Fold this sequence. Notes:
By secondary structure, this protein is mainly alpha-helical.
Amino acid sequence: MLRAYHDDEWGRPVHDSRQLWEMLMLEGFQAGLSWAIILRKREAFRRGFRRFDPVRVARFDEKDVTRLLADEGIVRSRAKIEATIAGARAYLRLHATGVDFASFVWETVGGAPIRRRGPVLPQTPLSGQLSNQLKAWGFKFVGPVVVYAWMQAVGLVDDHAPGCFRANRRGRRSEPPKTPGRARATRRPPATRRLPGNSGGAAPPRRARSIRPAPAP
C-alpha cells in the first residue's frame, strides 16, 4: 500500500484546489499517527466528510461532529474533526477574497516544485512561513511539520532520494526561491457571518508577511 502510494501519488504536483485542501486535512489527521493508518482509512474519511467538499463540510454542525465521532472507519478525534470543519471555513474565507487556494499555495514556492538537496528534514523555514499563513486564515493542525509533510505529498517539494525513479523530473528547481512568491491573498477578507458551530471570536496568530487576513468574526 505504501509502495503504491509512493510510486503513484507521493510527490506528484497537485494543482487542484480541492485536492490540495483534502490532502492538507488528511495530513492534519495523521499528526501523531502513521500515514499508513490514514491511507487505510482514506475512503472512510471521504465518505464521512462528503468527499471533502469544502462547501458541505463548512456547514457541518454538532450533529455531524457526533456522527463522525461514532464512525469507526476514521480517526475519531474531536479536535481533528473540528479542525477540518474550521479548515473548510478558512478555505471558503480565502476563496471569498477571489484567491484560488491552489494559486495561493503554489505562489509560495515560486510556482514550481522545489528540488531539495541533502537529508530530508522534518520541516523547513518555508514550511514554517506557510504554516503561519495558513494559521492566520483560520486553519488548524497545520504546524510546520504537518505542512512540510503536505508539501512533500502534493509535489510542492521534491524530496525523492537521488536514486529513486521518481526523482529529478523535468521542471523542478534545484534550489528554493530566495523570497517566496507573494500570493494574491494580500487583500483583507471581508467580514463573514459566523457559521453554526464556529467558535470564532479569537484574534488570528501573528500575521505572515505575504498575507494580511482580518480577524475571523
